[in-house]
Amino acid sequence: MTSPALFDRRLIFVLGKGGVGKSVVAAALGTAWARAGQRVVIAEVANQHRLSDLFATRRVPRNTPTELATRLYGYSVDVDKATEEYLASHIRVRPLVDLLVRSRAFHNFAAAAPGLPELVTLGKVWELAVAVEDGRPVWDKVIVDCPATGHGIALLQTAGNVSELAAQGPVREQAHRIEEVVKHPGATGIAIVARPEELPVSEAIDAVATLRADNFPVAATIMNGMTPRRFWAEDASVLGRVESDDPAIDEAVRAALRSDHHARIEHEHLRELTVGTYTSPIVVPDLGPIVIGQSELSILADALDGTARTAHPAARP
Amino acid sequence: MSITNFEDRRVIVCCGSGGVGKTTISAGIALALANNGARVAVVTIDPARRLASALGLETLGDEPRQVDIGPTGTRGELWALQLDAKATFDRLVRRHAPSPEAEQRILDNRIYEHLSGAVAGSQEYMAVERLNELTDDPRFEVIVLDTPPAQNALDFLDAPTRITHFIEGKSLRMLLSPGAAAGHLGWKVLHAGSSTVFSILERVTGAQLLRDLSEFLAAFDGMYSGFSERAERVRALLHSPRAAFVVVSSADDEPVREAVMLVERLTHDHYPLGPAVMNRVRQRAECDPPPRDALIEAYADAGAVHPQDLADRTLAQLAEDDARARRDHDACARLARLLGDRAPLEVPDFADEPVEIAGLEHVADALAP
Predict the structure, then answer these.
(1) Domain segments of chain B: what residues?
(2) Is domain B3-157+228-285+331-367 in CATH 3.30.70.920, yes or no?
(3) Which CATH fold topology does A6-230+278-310 show?
(4) Alpha-carbon distance B89 to B84, whole Å?
(5) pLDDT for res B121
(6) Would you call A87 an interface residue with chain B, using a CB distance cutoff of 8 Å?
(7) Under 8 Å CB-to-CB from A146, ≥6 apart: which residues?
(8) SS3 label, residue A192
(9) How much is the pLDDT for A3?
(10) What pLDDT is recorded for position B55?
(11) What angle do CA A182, A183, A187 make, to 5 degrees?
(12) Which of B120, B152, B290 sits opposite A252 (nearest CB)?
């Protein structure tokens, strides 16, 4: 069975180890899709505030879609407010909601209750994905910039956990509805991001295995920050033969050999990611030591454009 | 500045944003202190395979194991362990449950299962609990704590408060098991208020989830004061001059920004600061690039088919390396400026992660120059 490409899904979760560039990948995916005429919203969870930096706009206010570029919006999930909204939608008697929201016991409970902040966050994202206006979906794409792997997987699993914990009641029903969408390969795609380094790759491989075992639709793996290759095997043998007593030439040869060595290691990590996840990773190039802004996002969107539309992960074993 | 200036501290906490190499730096700090004569335990969280093997941790659970750091002489000891949040939580319950029945009730409770197994939250809390256990262990003079990956690098400081609020919040207990408060004054008032809250919650969650929850809280009865005492103890230790926080960054924009935010938050909350560490700093080459002609000639002599092309690619590489090294240097300077002219300890970029303890020595040397 081949899952549909990333491009065919409405709800996309971008997941990966801290520091691999999830926010940049989410923003570049959003840029690529908005360019292609889609209405896109990127949802930030857990106070990341990365979008405003990347798009050099004012801070994305909480719980209100904010335009970042043409057809591209940012959204920041405010858990406290969303919890209140969530209760209001279930209880429907405003004074009761106020009573609950004002109670300190409830706040302590809500802040630490296993799964509640995650469920509310996921519920908010789900709302964006299923929102309809005039018979049409409000958003063509909802991209979720997830927290680091462990927390990100917990976020995805929370609906299932809650519907397992609560045997009946509205919470269970809602959790179940959310779970259905989040696990539906026609609606949802999870993109796992790695960098060509040991830990991010092994974490990505583990994440893919965990998510698949749990029937989550893993739609793509993305190798972010691959250094464009500058030297090849035939260069290495020439470089190895250079004889010189000029320290500047020695240094130059060492730099070229280092670069080749580094590229081989990166390539080995790409291979590990490919073999370890049974996918063809989408490769996003390293842009060098620069600050990423909108024009860089557009270059990265170019890299994602073709592949994000067409790349099909290999059939599962 | 050297990390060994901080060897009189009972605990050194490494924090920083994801991907900066916190775990390697934690191990490097521990080794530097051990080399200087201290008995050190490093608590790692999810170390890379190579680092784990350098520390001899492949087979290790969450018990401290001594690492072979070569001939002792004036050296101290290095111990390492890997945090296992679930095991720590279970041990805690076993040690502090008032009776074997209570212990079993907790371990079997479904809420506990989710709470203790959840990565989110419980890892932060258990890192703090583990720290507490280790500070009681006379084998170790210094404990170096790596911090879990989190949405916010300092989540783990708030975790004890958050989770103790949850499991010992008195108001919540009364809310969920009104009987527990029956002896108290004002019971009627409380009961009236909380039963309303209870019934609202019940409409949303269903009765069974609340029943599990109240069973869970009842099972923890008798352990509450222990939890808050230990959380308080760790809070006090981390605020005292016996602790030091090391903020780790890499030269990328976001980690530097996060490092500055961390330092601001730590200062604001009166946590004792140690040095900042800039990891993976690339050094500029010691000489200028060679003239293009000389390089072409050298490549032609070595049998290159297209020596000009190879020379141009080499020069482009040198220019890029230099740009990266300058960027790293600027990032160090910026971090130093933002931290009030305290230069961070610089750890050079080693082409490969340390595989053996010998590789980790380079990190330790950079931290204790």
Answers:
(1) 3-157+228-285+331-367, 292-325
(2) no
(3) Rossmann fold (3.40.50)
(4) 9
(5) 62
(6) yes
(7) A13, A14, A15, A16, A22, A45, A152, A155, A156
(8) strand
(9) 44
(10) 79
(11) 65
(12) B290
